[in-house]
Amino acid sequence: MAKKAKSVKDSNNQVVATNRRARHNYAILETFEAGVALMGTEVKSLREGQASLADAFATVDDGEIWLRNLHIPEYHHGTWTNHAPRRNRKLLLHRRQIDTLVGRIRDGNLTLVPLSLYFTGGKVKVELALARGKQAHDKRQDIARRDAEREITREMGRRAKGMT
């Protein structure tokens, strides 16, 4: 069985970018932590806190998992060795994890979505989610449920203060 990713909120992790729309557009089933194969100028640009996961997604090609559409801007002190901002980047996972992900993606109409990009112990990691796309009515139900919970906590606060 694949190992679950550690919490990104860990104290020694420096979060570079998060994909806030992913939790709105997808139902997250399971998360994984994967390394990312990067060039030197990409790491320097990430250390400056520049990256965008807005349109990023992961695909499986020939038994390897690739992160596509991750935007890491060019390093401003870079020379002719600078990287292309939207190049495909290889994700580093164990063979067993890749095999289970490939099987679950094929069987269950699922997709791989990056949730966040962060540093752990000097290495760049990405939190990947095995996710199922939400329909429009599912999104509306989630919004309604959040609004109801917010209203309940607001009312409980009022009652605790004796305002009602």
Notes on the structure:
Strand 6 and strand 7 (123-133) form a beta hairpin. The mean pLDDT is 81. A seven-stranded antiparallel sheet has the order 1-6-7-2-5-4-3. The chain is globular, with a radius of gyration of 19 Å. Helices cover 32% and strands 32% of the residues. By secondary structure, it is of the alpha+beta class. The protein contains four helices and seven strands. It has one domain (13-159): Beta Barrel (Small Protein B, Chain: A), CATH 2.40.280.
Helix content: 25-40%
**Count of extended strands:** 7
Strand content: 25-35%
Structural class: alpha+beta
**Could you name the CATH topology?**
Small Protein B, Chain: A
Q: What is the CATH class name?
A: Mainly Beta
Distance between the termini: 52 Å
Strand order in the largest sheet = 1-6-7-2-5-4-3
Count of discrete alpha- or pi-helical segments spanning 4 or more residues:
4
Tell me about the largest β-sheet.
7 strands, antiparallel
Q: Helix and strand string, N-terminal first?
A: EHEHEEEHEEH
Return residue spans where pLDDT drops below 50 for at least 5 consecutive residues.
none
The domain count comes to 1
Radius of gyration: 19 Å
Shape: globular
Mean pLDDT: 81
The fourth-level CATH homologous superfamily is Small protein B
